[in-house]
Amino acid sequence: MITLALSKGRIFEETVPLLRGAGIEVLDDPERSRKLILATNRPEVRVVIVRATDVPTYVQYGGADVGVTGLDTLIEHGADWGGGAGLYQPLDLGIAKCRVSVAVRADFDYASAVRQGSRLRVATKYVNIAREFFAAKGVHVDLIKLYGSMELAPLTGLADAIVDLVSTGNTLKANQLVEVERIMDISSRLVVNQAALKLKQQAIRSVIDAFAAATKATA
């Protein structure tokens, strides 16, 4: 049995065509079903639905053999572009593309504050990414960990800036915020439990190869 960890939402929606291209059909819609373990048309493959931030944890500790998760989540988990944290990253699937950026109120002079060496308060759920980015720039920041509604932080005076995912930028514009720095581009990765890869090598390699072929076909 191969267990694939996915999260609801955009990543699931954009993974489904790749699964289909790999010959795997999920038999339930997670948006309609209360089931957290979903069968597929292949008896040897099942899908578990977990929180996006928990996908690397499930794969690392063997709750799942394979998972699909964003690079941002992997970095916050302690992995990087190549692997780490007990995870093997064989594929960039090229889905759920977005970017991690710094944004501020439209009337806040971010460039001047950075140039003058001001200490900035930055709200984010991406603490590791933000810490490394500002440290590399020599900018002094106090990081405030939030879990949602990031755009509120500058509007209420909680923070001078935010570090968050940006896709179209429409949410920023709707809240009178502007993107001032692009930290990194993000897409979703296929991640594999390293121990499972050894124990179920043939089965998992076939899944990796199928994903690779499906990704290439949709590129």
TrEMBL record:
GO terms for molecular function: ATP binding; ATP phosphoribosyltransferase activity. Pathway: Amino-acid biosynthesis; L-histidine biosynthesis; L-histidine from 5-phospho-alpha-D-ribose 1-diphosphate: step 1/9. Keywords: Amino-acid biosynthesis, ATP-binding, Cytoplasm, Glycosyltransferase, Histidine biosynthesis, Nucleotide-binding, Transferase. It is found in: Cytoplasm. Residues 51-211 form the ATP phosphoribosyltransferase catalytic domain. Pfam families: HisG. Its EC number is 2.4.2.17. It catalyses: 1-(5-phospho-beta-D-ribosyl)-ATP + diphosphate = 5-phospho-alpha-D-ribose 1-diphosphate + ATP. The keyword Cell inner membrane does not apply. GO terms for biological process: L-histidine biosynthetic process. Its main location: cytoplasm. The keyword Kinase does not apply. One of its GO terms (cellular component) is cytoplasm. CDD domains: PBP2_HisGs. InterPro entries: ATP_PRibTrfase_cat (IPR013820), ATP_PRibTrfase_CS (IPR018198), ATP_PRibTrfase_HisG (IPR001348), ATP_PRibTrfase_HisG_short (IPR024893). NCBIfam families: hisG. Lacks the C-terminal regulatory region which is replaced by HisZ. Belongs to the ATP phosphoribosyltransferase family. Short subfamily. Catalyzes the condensation of ATP and 5-phosphoribose 1-diphosphate to form N'-(5'-phosphoribosyl)-ATP (PR-ATP). Has a crucial role in the pathway because the rate of histidine biosynthesis seems to be controlled primarily by regulation of HisG enzymatic activity. Heteromultimer composed of HisG and HisZ subunits. This is ATP phosphoribosyltransferase. It comes from Ramlibacter lithotrophicus. The gene is hisG.
